[in-house]
Amino acid sequence: MSRICGQAKQAGTGKLVNDEVEIEHEEGRAHYRARVLLVGGGWHEFDAALVSGQTPSDRTRHMLQRLLVQIDGLDIDRLHEEAAHPGGDWRGDNAKGPRAR
Known about the structure:
This protein is of the alpha+beta class.
């Protein structure tokens, strides 16, 4: 199993996101798990996935492309706020009461 740690820039926001991926190569395919680091040291984990390719380099490239698409789709500000204020009013507007569920 290999671990890749890096930093990606969200396409829509330009914000930098720290990510980590564990990838295990098999013949013609690889399983991977990815996550992004949140405020306070917590993680947002993506569902595990499978990629295919002829070589480990091909599979790693496909996995990184998928990961960047997933990162681009995150509402990273909301995830950071929820991580910073678990179970509380993460909007920063305490005058309006707790967050509606």
